[in-house]
Structures are given as structure tokens and as C-alpha cells.
Design brief:
seven-stranded mixed β-sheet, mainly beta, four-stranded antiparallel β-sheet, about 0% helix, 11 strands, single chain, globular
């Protein structure tokens, strides 16, 4: 079992920045690929960014490319999402997700929600225009 706890959400003006963190329990964090998803009111959940188990592969949704950066620190069991130049369209609940440990065999990212086995409770990000 893996527990994921997100933090760092809040209210920010358009153009501002936030850094989300996701702390994972257990000793298998470094074997799992990680992802950040978001869900806006009335919309389906969507992938924001993903990172391979080693951190050498990353994926970004087109809507956040060049503004968001995903990273991980396997020594701290933590994955981060640095969000810059925030827009009102970035408002939503942001979820951290982890794959199973088979991800350690592949240097790839996982971009579909159904590829993830564990989810955090989410953190609210609100961008005011």
C-alpha cells in the first residue's frame, strides 16, 4: 500500500506561481512512476504531468508545457509540480498518483489515469483573474 499526501495548493493571482508537493509513504517510491492530474468543476479529470521512476522521462499536457515542471526526489519520497504563469484555466483540484512497482522496469511515463493504482486526496488550486 502507498499513501500519497498532497500539499501546496491555494489561492493565487493569474501570472503567479505555486509549488505542489506529494509525499509518499513506504519504501517503494523509487520503483513507481508518478503523475499529477487535475479536475476542474464540471470537467473530467485530466493528466497534467508525469515522470518516470528514475526521473529521466517526463510528460506534459500541451496546456501546461513551458509553464509547469514536474520533478521528484526519491531520497525524500516526494514528487513536485512547479507551476508558473498560472492562468484561471489552471483552477481545479490537483491529484498526485502513483503506479505499481512494475514501472521500475521501464523508463517511460504513464499518461492515463487507469494506469495509476494509488491516488492522493487532492489539493485545491484557485487562480483568480
Amino acid at each position: 500500500q502507498v499513501q500519497l499526501v498532497e500539499s501546496g495548493g491555494g489561492l493565487v493571482q493569474a501570472g503567479g506561481s505555486l509549488r505542489l508537493s506529494c509525499a509518499a509513504s513506504g519504501r517503494t517510491f523509487s520503483s513507481r512512476a508518478m503523475g499529477w492530474f487535475r479536475q476542474a468543476p464540471g470537467k473530467e479529470r485530466e493528466i497534467v504531468a508525469a515522470i518516470s521512476w528514475s526521473g529521466d522521462m517526463t510528460y506534459y499536457a500541451d496546456s501546461v508545457k513551458s509553464r509547469f515542471t514536474i520533478s521528484r526526489d526519491n531520497a525524500k519520497n516526494t514528487v513536485y509540480l512547479q507551476m508558473n504563469s498560472l492562468k484561471s484555466a489552471d483552477t481545479g483540484v490537483y491529484y498526485c498518483a502513483a503506479t505499481n512497482t512494475n514501472a521500475r522496469w521501464y523508463s517511460i511515463t504513464y499518461n492515463q489515469g487507469n494506469e495509476y493504482d494509488y491516488w492522493g486526496q487532492g489539493t485545491q488550486v484557485t487562480v483568480s483573474s
